[in-house]
Specification:
single chain, 15 strands, three-stranded antiparallel beta sheet, about 400 residues, alpha/beta, about 15% strand
């Protein structure tokens, strides 16, 4: 029979967070092995529960969640998002500018689908959250990766962005706070990005899903709060700040210069209608979450669980010879670097396979985040301190053996 092949649109798409190394881990689990999973920011798997008031509110409203909602979402949660944008100093947002979705991920894909024609270019950070690169490719566009400078705390390299803007460039993606690096961008850098967007009439796609997961007293500035003459699409949701990944409750806010974007906004409305609506039970969680006690602040406080685990993971990783890591200011991840002189890695996916096979620890290789060189990997620091200590010890043991094998010990 003629083989049935996947679409050619998938040729340049990867999502290695749930990729082939994870499939190998699942196979090993079926064979009875216990795997320590440091590959995904799934908070519930590590004992981070959604706030009880959110759970109870969803339960109470389940009887009202059987029907379709408005294609953009229920009024009350959209109004609460509007109030949140006011708290973030984003001006001019109305209820009609807010779209609720099945997590921010659905809305990211929707926003790019509505925008791009074949050959259009979108500036995407490197390293990135790979959904962005995949969404651009699937929409017929070309992702163009700009450098985030590790030596500058993973801040975007403005000169590199400037060099990569062409007549085909339609938008720039800014992931702040950043996944996978944990970077938090300075206001000066954000203003420079806006100036480039203003000069070249680019849409700014601002992924701010971790805007409350901040350490050491740091604060987050929403890009869209810094200008009103550029079109901003801002993405957020409950998954991370409220430990509600499975509820798939996210939102997208259109703000700034909207007069010249009426046709694009009409496209967003068409796509929102085509999917009928976001899941209704998740929508009922949004108003309670945004208006209730912000328990994330306890977790990121100096003695909070997330802060302690970040500090421990960073200490244990950077004690390993040849491993350096910019300490995250935000989010749930670290993106350590392996000195190529000590760890001459040619294929970092194979490196991840070997770590999994030898030490039963699952990570994601750096090239899975469109990092150009095979000398980084991402780990989550969500496991409790005992499990973190165990997993970092296994990584250290693997890297010690790696150095001996390659004569760099």
């Amino acid at each position: 029979m003629r083989p049935i092949q996947k679409s050619r649109k998938l040729a340049d798409v990867c999502y290695d967070i749930r990729g082939p190394v994870l499939e190998k881990a699942r196979q090993m689990e079926e064979e009875g092995h216990k795997i320590i999973k440091l590959n995904i920011g799934n908070l519930a798997a590590f004992g981070f529960d959604a706030p009880d008031e959110i759970v109870q509110d969803m339960i109470r409203n389940m009887g009202n969640a059987s029907g379709y909602t408005d294609s953009k979402g229920l009024f009350a949660p959209r109004k609460s998002v509007m109030h949140y944008t006011q708290q973030k100093n984003i001006e001019g947002v109305t209820i009609d500018d807010i779209y609720l979705g099945n997590g921010a991920s659905e809305l990211i894909v929707m926003s790019v689908n509505a925008l791009l024609n074949t050959g259009d270019e979108v500036l995407v950070p490197s390293p990135d959250y790979p959904l962005w690169t995949a969404a651009v490719s699937l929409s017929g566009g070309t992702p163009v990766h700009y450098v985030c400078d590790e030596q500058a705390g993973w801040q975007p390299d403005i000169d590199d962005i400037r060099k990569k803007i062409t007549p085909n460039t339609k938008a720039i993606v800014v992931i702040n706070p950043n996944n996978p690096t944990g970077a938090l961008y300075s206001v000066d850098v954000l203003k420079e990005i806006i100036e480039l967007a203003r000069r070249h009439q680019l849409i700014v796609l601002a992924d701010e899903i971790y805007d409350k997961v901040l350490y050491d007293g740091n604060t987050h500035t929403s890009l869209a709060s810094l200008a009103d003459d550029v079109l901003f699409i801002t993405f957020n949701g409950l998954s991370k700040n409220y430990r509600s990944c499975g509820y798939r409750a996210g939102w997208m806010v259109v703000s700034g210069e909207k007069k010249h974007a009426r046709d694009y906004i009409e496209g967003l409305n068409m796509l929102a209608s085509m999917r009928l609506c976001a899941n209704a039970p998740g929508q009922f969680a949004i108003q309670t979450a945004l208006g209730g006690y912000q328990s994330i602040n306890d977790l990121v406080a100096p003695n909070g669980r997330l802060t302690k685990q970040r500090d421990l993971a960073h200490k244990l990783l950077t004690e390993i010879p040849g491993v350096t890591c910019v300490k995250p200011k935000s989010a749930l991840y670290m993106f350590p670097r392996l000195d190529p002189e000590i760890y001459p890695i040619k294929d970092d996916q194979q490196f991840a396979y070997e770590l999994l096979a030898e030490e039963k620890v699952l990570i994601v290789q750096g090239t899975g985040f469109n990092c150009p060189t095979p000398d980084h990997f991402r780990v989550v620091f969500l496991p409790n301190t005992d499990d973190l200590t165990e997993s970092m010890g296994r990584i250290a043991h693997f890297l010690e053996a790696y150095r001996r094998r390659h004569g760099t010990a």
